[in-house]
Design brief:
Aspartate Aminotransferase, domain 2; 44% helix; alpha/beta; globular; 7-stranded mixed β-sheet; 4-stranded mixed β-sheet; Aspartate Aminotransferase, domain 1
């Protein structure tokens, strides 16, 4: 125990100690934190669906009809009709033959890569991919080559170098929207590359599904190459306002995962309330209301980001609802986050190992339900605090 205490003291000394905060009430543009209302600028509830009455009603009705739990894994006690209905809905949404739901985005990425790749295979992974992709690559036991972030030319050079000794399957794996930078992967160019080199393209679209593209199909739709992506991973707990994750892909891929993906095989499946809420969320994304929420999100994002960009701050090339403001070292980053909280704005400072050394940041996320005037005021407050600390 003493060694853990010393480790915690060292983390605190370096400005790297993490702790939990408790919110009261539902997710929304404002939350109650430590007994007072604050503006929430660090939620992935991009379309405001986590508090939508239709999702809440569907979840409550499903719990009353089907109970609170699913009982076991689907291979042990069977699938609920809601599992199959949701997977059919997801497949239709992404334009694939089939889909499979997982219990979290982390479980999905580790389970997809572990289930599909093996020692004879090769994974090409973007340098800024999510930690769950990195861990999935490790669990797969496939050889993994990391290419510079978004650099298609460097990736192709790696592929040409590896081609003479090729044995198994090749995978290109990338985030669609990078969660700490808010930028987009060059998906159209990656799709061309995977076709030239007979690879499978996997896109983690956790932060794009429901938000990007004319109909909310995600970063693939926004890039004009949705149908050319082989493996569409997405989450149900960000823009879709619920919990869980999925893969949409061909039928053989899904069937292999049912037989080989350890997080799927050995986990109790998602409960009825979660499944029912997700079905309603997809309906809302496809509705006129969903379109209006995406438009409001785009406008709100620009209201917030424009003054920060005009002031010359480093926003990491963000073009999405994730707006990072680079601050450098851990201590000034956390001091700025604490000062913002004191002034009624809740957003998180992000430190290594989540981001590289020297690239700590305030990671702001915009929601469709935010008031534009409040966002403009929050951006000005951030500018004021950073100037005060400089």
């Amino acid at each position: 125990m003493e060694s853990y205490r010393r480790e915690l003291e060292e983390l605190s000394r370096r400005g790297m100690l993490r702790s939990l905060r408790t919110l009261a009430g539902a997710q929304g543009p404002h939350v109650r934190l430590d007994g007072r209302e604050v503006l929430l600028l660090c939620s992935n509830n991009y379309l405001g669906l986590a508090g939508h009455p239709r999702l809440a009603r569907a979840a409550a009705e499903a719990a009353l009809e089907f109970g609170t739990g699913s009982g076991a894994s689907r291979l042990v006690s069977g699938s609920l009709a809601l599992h199959e209905e949701l997977e059919a809905r997801i497949a239709a949404f992404k334009g694939t033959e089939a889909a499979l739901v997982f219990n979290s985005g982390y479980a999905a990425n580790t389970g997809i890569l572990q289930g599909l790749a093996g020692p004879d295979d090769l994974i090409f992974s973007d340098a800024l991919n999510h930690a769950s992709i990195i861990d999935g690559c490790r669990l797969s036991r496939a050889r993994t080559l990391v290419y510079p972030h978004g650099d298609v030319d460097a990736l192709e050079a790696l592929m040409l170098r590896e081609r003479p000794a090729r044995r198994g399957r090749w995978f290109i794996v990338t985030d669609g929207v990078f969660s700490m930078d808010g930028d987009l992967a060059p998906l159209a160019a990656l799709a061309e590359l995977k076709e030239r080199h007979d690879a499978l393209l996997m896109v983690d679209d956790a932060h794009g599904t429901g938000v990007l593209g004319d109909t909310g199909r995600g970063s693939g739709e926004a890039s004009g190459c949705l149908a050319r992506i082989d493996l569409h991973m997405g989450t149900l707990g960000k823009a879709l306002g619920g919990f869980g994750a999925f893969l949409a892909a061909s039928r053989p891929v899904i069937d292999i995962l049912i037989n080989r993906s350890r997080p799927f095989i050995f986990s109790t499946s998602l409960p009825p309330a979660v499944l029912a809420a997700a079905l309603v969320a997809f309906d809302l994304v496809d509705s006129t209301e969903g379109h209006a929420r995406r438009e409001m999100l785009r406008r709100n994002r620009e209201v917030f980001a424009a003054p920060l960009r005009a002031a010359g701050l480093d926003l990491c090339g963000s073009v999405t609802q994730i707006v990072p403001i680079v601050t450098g070292a851990p201590r000034p980053t956390m001091r700025a986050a604490q000062t913002l909280l004191e002034r009624g704005i809740f957003l998180q400072g992000i430190r290594p190992p989540t981001v590289p050394e020297g690239r700590c940041r305030l990671r702001a996320t915009v929601m469709s339900e935010h008031d534009p005037q409040e966002l403009a005021a929050a951006a000005q407050t951030i500018l004021d605090i950073l100037r005060e600390q400089s």
